[in-house]
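quick one: NAI bound model?
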Amino acid sequence: MINEVYDLAIIGAGPGGYHAAIRAAQYGAKVALIEKESLGGTCLNVGCIPTKALYASTKLIQQIREHGEEFGVSCELKTNFSNAVERKNRIVRELVDGIAGLQKSWKNDVFNGFGKIIGGDINNGFDLAIEGDNGEKTIRAKRVIIATGSFPKLIPSFNIDHQKILTSSDILHPDFKEIPKSLLIIGAGVIGCEFANIFATFGSKVTVLEYLPLPIATEEPMIIRAIMNKFEKSEIDLHISQNVLSIEKTANGVKATTCPANIPKDEIESIEKKVFEADYCLVSIGREKEIFNLGLEKLGIETVRGAINVNPDTLETYVKGIYAIGDVTGGLMLAHVASYEGNVAIANALSSIGGFPIKPATTDYSVVPATIFTSPNIGSVGIRRAEAKEKNISVAMGRFTYSSLGKAKCMGEEEGFIMILANKENGKIIGASCIGAEAPELIAEIALAMKYGLTAHDIGSVIHSHPTISEMVLEGAEDVFGMAIHRRGRPRFV
Ligand code: NAI
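yep, here:
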């Protein structure tokens, strides 16, 4: 029996789904938000937020360790991972409660349970079954948004037991409070590198095994080199070009067996293997989309390579009236992309119902900032130099180092640089990469400039407050035309 009829039902309350629910309510829609676990999804519970809380602890430790004496702070530094985890848990709890409060304030109905589309169409509405602790409930909605996200990739030969061989969700569990003596990390992507920094700072002996010849391989080569140097200084043992064949539990911990990545499959058996041992292993080799038991097949919602197939412009699936956003669509797996996609899907869903003060929208992925919270932080947006070359775009690059900036010196943040790329033809900013203090924040200004077609001169014409780290962007932009004040050189491009 149908108890309620909603304008919109959203399955999944991660940064895609919960933002979309609020956005829809802001336009006056009646919204049902369905979540099987905790509000906030991966990002808030076992992703962006908990890792950034732990990162903040490591930052404080590193500052005291590296600069304490020089800054006039003398103390015997003792770290306590358990306290850092408690703090992380509290932050997560507060933010989850905050999201519940926001949904309530917008009068959205939040259902705790597993949501599944059981039938219907765009003319009559869709029926959804919600299986929760208190039994099953059915609701009807005129439009549906699937925002179910993703989960850590599991490979059978990696024997992930969630006790010793862990996923990122396991290692961020509220009860994982003891710092391992040694930690093996499989995959030097974003997650692997962020955890390597956290656990190495708290005293784990960290070994990272990466299949590719480089870690965080999509970043600018100069940024990758800088982070590899930093790993070496921090005694993070990075092994690249390693094909991890298996991971097993041992009497004392775990062991991973590898061979060189370039060995053809049929020669692996005969080749000499390497074995890496540690107390624990974290597997961070990417994520799979959460597409199971949602009723997709019955409705004819198409999946391609494990992701829900959507019209890339409108985010509508190929079943009219059902949309999908975020990780589950197989696009860029970033919380902020999921939230942005929520706006587009809401615009299209509500305008197709009619009567809401909103027009249809299409996606635009031309400017997507990305961040990595290693130490130092990394931020990037737009295209890399190699991509510009491939596209035959003639590039002028501005570069500025933190060691030349007054505010950075004062903060003891002299490590790193920003590089800003402009199109030589018209001066427009086409990309930037930054490694150093507040890099992810600095990239936001570049993203805005790119979105609105601004040039390096335009950035140079904006008064940037002094002394601030934001002057990295000003000087970097002025260096595009060879006129950074605090960098030696001659004009190169006017
Ligand atoms: P990823 O795709 O970034 O990196 C996985 C790494 O594992 C790759 O370098 C890959 O070459 C390597 N790999 C794969 N199989 C391997 C094997 N058998 N042996 C050794 N290495 C292997 O995936 P990751 O780090 O798990 O992150 C998942 C998603 O979450 C990404 O899309 C990422 O962008 C997102 N994320 C974003 C964050 C942020 O914005 N700060 C933070 C954390 C995750």
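The CA atoms of residues 262 and 400 lie 37 Å apart.
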